[in-house]
Design goal:
Blueprint (H helix, E strand, L loop, with lengths): L18 E3 L9 E4 L1 H10 L7 E5 L5 E9 L4 E10 L7 E5 L4 H14 L3 E2 L2 E2 L10 H14 L7 E2 L3 E2 H6 L6 E5 L5 E2 H5 L5 E5 L7 H9 L3 E5 L7 H15 L13
Parallel strand pairs: 1-3, 6-7, 6-13, 7-9, 8-10, 11-13, 11-14, 12-14
Antiparallel strand pairs: 2-5, 3-4, 4-5
Helix pairs in contact: 2-3, 2-7
The protein binds S-adenosyl-L-homocysteine.
S-adenosyl-L-homocysteine binds next to α7.
Length: 260
């Protein structure tokens, strides 16, 4: 017996179509030309040909189907056909992770994007082993993560800020959820009442006492605990983001409509 595809499953564009965030603003009928690494990816890696479908996003208008009108050696030209989805609405959560060693911080950038944060604001603390972030590289990681998990919005990326400077300029309407392995309220309980918030996660060696005191003294700070075990910083970030998304973000009440 043949299995009919669900009527809600669109046959076009194909699920396997490459997805890319592009620098151009997109509109029906526009023609855009990609070069550099994006042309290399489409031409050499994906071996696209004229007529193939590519899914493109611009982080402004949403997600579009396009077709290849020209695939040359160093450039690929696409014609924007139709909008598939508007830009997603993004839950209002920022992640403020202390900078970590490069590969560990890459994990934080990738996973935070997949889990749906609105903004990543790196912080520099006294025990940080790194004090710089390669923004171009960070942008590549978050963009690839967004493409891979079919987000239609990229997280904003802040320049790293010293903890004290960040606390000083903190907006007066955003709760500071402080992941403190030395004690705090149960995360899920606190998160439920905080749907405009930021999560602060310390570096490998944790915050020092003065930093912990400074965060706790902030009027918008809420210390939270992620349980009895001391987690690596990247695990703490992933765990806290997941809890927040499920009680205050867009996992709460989300039911998959079963189109797969
Ligand atoms: N000070 C620790 C390690 C810090 S873990 C030590 O060296 O022993 C890195 C960061 O992850 C912490 O600063 C904190 O923000 C977060 N974290 C890890 N485990 C946590 C827990 N159980 N509850 C809350 N936050 C935690």
């Amino acid at each position: 017996m043949s299995v009919e595809p669900s009527p809600r499953t669109p046959a076009w564009p194909p699920k396997s179509a490459p997805r890319l965030f592009v620098e151009h603003r997109l509109e029906e009928g526009f023609t855009i030309t990609l070069d550099g690494p994006q042309a290399h990816y489409l031409g050499k890696v994906m071996r696209v040909k004229t007529g193939d479908t590519i899914i493109v996003c611009d982080d402004q208008t949403g997600e579009w189907a396009s077709s290849v009108v020209d695939a040359a050696k160093r450039s690929v030209t696409l014609r924007i056909a139709e909008r598939l989805r508007p830009r997603e609405s993004v839950p209002d959560l920022w992640l403020c992770p202390a900078l970590l060693k490069k590969d560990r911080f890459d994990i934080v950038l990738e996973k935070a994007t997949e889990l749906g944060v609105a903004r990543i604001q790196p912080i520099i603390t006294r025990r940080c082993v790194a004090d710089k972030l390669n923004q171009a590289r960070a942008r590549t990681i978050t963009t690839e993560a967004a493409e891979q998990c079919a987000r239609t919005a990229l997280p904003e990326m802040g320049e790293p800020l010293k903890l004290e400077a960040m606390l000083k300029q903190w907006p007066d309407d955003r709760t500071l959820l402080f992941a403190d392995e030395q004690g705090g309220e149960s995360a899920a309980k606190v998160f439920r009442d905080n749907n405009k918030a930021a999560l602060i996660i310390g570096p490998e060696g944790g915050f020092d006492d003065a930093e912990r005191a400074a965060i706790r003294a902030h009027p918008l700070a809420q210390p939270i605990s992620l349980g009895p075990r001391i987690l690596r910083a990247e695990t703490a970030a992933i765990a806290a983001l997941s809890i927040w998304m499920s009680v205050a973000g867009d996992w709460a009440g989300y039911k998959n409509s079963g189109t797969e």
